[in-house]
Amino acid sequence: MDESLETVLVAFDDERGVGTITMNRPDALNALNGQLRDDIIAGLESLEERNANADGVALRAVVLEGAGEKAFCAGADIGGFSSESAGGSSARSHYDVIRDFPAPVIAKIDGYCLGGGLETALACDFRLASEDSTFGFPEVNLGILPGAGGVQYVEKLAGPSVAKELAMFGNHISAERAGDEGLVNHVYADNEFEDEVDDFVTELAGQAPLAVQAIKKSAAMAVQTGLEEGIEYDRQLFAELLETEDHAEGAAAFGEDREPEFEGK
Ligand code: HXC
């Protein structure tokens, strides 16, 4: 299944169960206008539908990337801000949809990752960057703040000093520094970027899918709640996973000294 929305390309790799959403406004460095925000949601929903219609879990991971040579995403489209740019309406924003998406979403960052683009990447489960990528919150230069939780996310990942430095100065930082601060999972040399991302995604997509989805839920719970409630939540997830065919398959494969074949059941 490959489909083309106005500002997003959607692809699905049947072999690995990997969806790809490409933000496709390269002439505007993939800046987020209303259409692009809507199309990201529509693209993710079409991947989710495919998943729901499959026998078991077919969709194991989604890669989110930017078209063109220069940018993952240069932020909200400066041509027209509103509170909706930050997801401020009754409908779920693309940030919420990514964050709540059942399968893990990987931001594949090659170039500028700024403002709402960085917040989009932060809503993803993983951030993989090429070494020439740059990161920043330039909103302060426009007299606003990162409106979709950028300071909140960076504060949790890298602490308050880094969050305030990024947001108050509005400067770009290198991929290397973003990696050192824990804002991205891995930084790869440009000539190895495609292969390294592919390997990462392939390995993730080969993990037991229901366990991966439960871990995503657990991690989301961990930032919302206290330790005791979080541990209780994990116990429930654990009990559910114990009943799955994938768990039986994983245990059998271990006993038989072979690779497990997980089916998401
Ligand atoms: C609309 C944008 C854009 C943006 C770039 N473009 N960023 N259009 N919104 N955020 C357009 C430029 O106007 C230009 O169009 C084309 O993309 C190429 O950009 P250049 O500036 O010519 O490229 P370059 O000189 O390489 O500079 C790249 C850049 C710069 C450093 C990334 O474009 C820049 O500073 N952009 C703004 C980044 C920004 O402030 N983002 C945060 C937005 S606020 P033309 O037609 O001239 O070729 C935000 C708030 C979120 O995200 C809060 C709510 C969630």
Description:
The chain is α/β, with parallel strands linked by helices and 265 residues long. It has ten helices and eleven strands. The chain has two domains: 2-205, 2-enoyl-CoA Hydratase, Chain A, domain 1; 209-255, Lyase 2-enoyl-coa Hydratase, Chain  A, domain 2. The two termini are 23 Å apart. The mean pLDDT is 94. The structure holds hexanoyl-coenzyme A. The site of hexanoyl-coenzyme A (HXC) has 22 residues, from strand 7 and helix 3.
The coarse overall form would be globular
Largest sheet: 7 strands, mixed
What is the mean pLDDT? Answer: 94
Going across the major beta sheet, what is the strand order? 1-2-3-4-6-8-11
- Stretches where pLDDT is under 50 for at least 5 consecutive residues are none
Q: Let me know the CATH homologous superfamily of the largest domain.
A: 2-enoyl-CoA Hydratase, Chain A, domain 1
Which CATH first-tier class of the largest domain would you pick?
Answer: Alpha Beta
**Percent range for β-strand residues:** 15-25%
Order of helices and strands: EEEHEEHEEHEEHHEHEHHHH
The structural domain count equals 2
Oligomer: single chain
| The CATH architecture of the largest domain | Alpha-Beta Complex
Q: Give the termini separation.
A: 23 Å
Instruction: List the ions, cofactors and other small molecules found in this model.
Output: hexanoyl-coenzyme A
Strand tally, please? Answer: 11
**Class inferred from helices and paired strands:** alpha/beta
Helical coverage, percent range: 40-55%
Entry keywords:
single chain; 265 residues; alpha/beta; 2-enoyl-CoA Hydratase, Chain A, domain 1; Lyase 2-enoyl-coa Hydratase, Chain  A, domain 2; 2 domains; seven-stranded mixed beta sheet; four-stranded mixed beta sheet; 10 helices; 11 strands; binds hexanoyl-coenzyme A; hydro-lyase activity; ClpP/crotonase-like_dom_sf; Enoyl-CoA_hydra/iso; lyase; Enoyl-CoA hydratase/isomerase family protein
